Amino acid sequence: MPNERNDSLRPVKRTWQEIAEEASHEQDSAKLKQLSEELACALEERDKRLHPPRLAGRTIPTVENTLHVERLGNLKGQSVLCFKGPLTVENVSLFQSAIRREESFSTVILDLSDVPYIDSTALGALISAYVSRQKVGRRVVLSGASERVSKMLKVTSVESLFLTFPTLEDAIGGLTGAGAA
Known about the structure:
The chain is of the alpha/beta class. The protein has a single domain, classed as Transcription Regulator spoIIAA (2-Layer Sandwich). The chain is about 50% helix and about 15% strand. It contains 7 helices and 5 strands; from the N terminus they run H-H-H-E-E-H-E-H-E-H-E-H. A 5-stranded mixed beta sheet has the order 1-2-3-4-5, with helices on both faces. Helix 5 links the parallel strand 3 and strand 4.
């Protein structure tokens, strides 16, 4: 009996996949925010297990983990950000800053045509951007996701959160056509 009581007092740990699945079906914005925070913590714990602590000192960015962001600005009423390079824990703050700067636009298109892959931290940031923008009636649209990025979105059951288009041109045309209809 004492073991049963001790087990019931322990917090229930959920996998980040379970949290993402619940978030994809949640409508309440307060609950979405809570799930977003829980997901970020779960992904951070996962990354700590996958990436052991580094030695003290500066991290020197390498060519392989450099992320470039190009702001195309207001194209037919949509804000467009084009990313080039892998989206990873090393550069996720650049991604987050770029998204925050676009908060005045009702729709931001993230062109991922030149993003070969994203890691779990970046996935958490992407979901967090979705949740933050959805709470205020705005949206995040993805274009040009590589097969590897698309597969990660599908495997983690978050692909349904995002309106996606095969190319940036399709996204701009599709959103402009939808707005005109």
